[in-house]
Amino acid sequence: MKAKQKRNRYRRSDTKIVTKEAKVLNFLRESRRLSMRKVGKLIGLSDTFVSHCEQGRIDLTAGVIAKFLHAYGYDYGHFQKLVLGQIEMPQDLLEECLGLLKKMSEDKLKTVKTILQTF
How far apart are CA 91 and CA 96, in angstroms? Predict the structure, then answer.
């Protein structure tokens, strides 16, 4: 019986580098309420590939990004504006607001709650 050999070969998927592009692709997929499995079928690739792209385990090429954008119904210009921060992603806004809320006193939170309930 052979012992398992240790893998010495470097694989890009072993390293996680989450780029702004990867975050934007994740945001766009979630904004369309699509699962990774559904996107994989739409673009003709595996759901693992979709996951690796969003989690920074694959270097994103213009061709791969174009496949995702076509499947999501977005154009490259909109994608670039999100990447460059010219359009704010609601996720960032929500996280920022939650951070502010966590720092507020109870009296101020009551006031904010009252205001939010009017919407």
Answer: 9
